[in-house]
Amino acid sequence: MWNRSSFCLKVQKIISGGQTGVDRAALDVALALGLDVGGWCPKGRRAEDGRIPDRYPLTETAEMDYETRTRRNIEDSDGTLILNRGKMEGGTALTADLARQIGKPCLIVALEEGIEPATFQDWLVANSITVLNVAGPRESKRPGMYDAAYDCLKSLFGSP
User: Fold this and answer.
1) How far apart are CA 107 and CA 60, in angstroms?
2) If you count DSSP H runs as helices and E runs as strands, how many of each does the chain have, helices first?
3) Which of 30, 75, 66, 55 is nearest to 138 (CA)?
4) Is residue 2 part of a domain?
5) Is 125 part of any domain?
6) pLDDT tens string for the chain (160 positions)?
7) Are 84 and 111 in contact (CB under 8 A)?
8) What is the DSSP string of 47-61?
9) Calpha distance 16→91 (Å, rounded)
């Protein structure tokens, strides 16, 4: 049976690239839960809304491109959770492709369909995931993604 304490014991760190939308929702939920957070972001802490706020302890890559950041986060994690709504495209599709190429587990959740916390926990356990990369569309591509991702992650992790 799923419970917050067993989840928190399994996942020790949440990483993301700090972009608006899903990335920041993941970091905010993890911070609220008291989990370690981190990840890679582009040089200059580049995001669509300007500089990524310093409250997110991310490490800058040497390059300004998003692909380098995406690859590093996949490589440094045990697996990637992608939260999406609608067609997979852009950086979200790139994340799934890179995870497959690198050989890391990747769970794609269509927010229209949702996912049960027990199913998510089973995936974490089956893949021995303690460092979880969370990715998905930026806010400008899917307006409302931050709120939708935050609510989904709260449900999966247990409310902070």
Assistant:
1) 26
2) 6, 9
3) 66
4) no
5) yes
6) 334 444 444 899 999 999 999 999 999 999 999 999 999 999 999 999 999 999 999 999 999 999 999 999 999 999 999 999 999 999 999 999 999 999 999 999 999 999 999 999 999 999 999 999 999 999 999 999 999 999 999 999 886 5
7) yes
8) ETTEEPPTTS-PEEP
9) 13
The number of domains in the chain is 1
Residue 89 covered by a domain? yes
Position 6 in a domain:
no
The verdict on pTM exceeding 0.70 is yes
The token duo for 48 is 């669509």
Q: How far apart are CA 37 and CA 100, in angstroms?
A: 23
- CATH number for 119: 3.40.50.450
Full domain range(s) for residue 57: 11-157
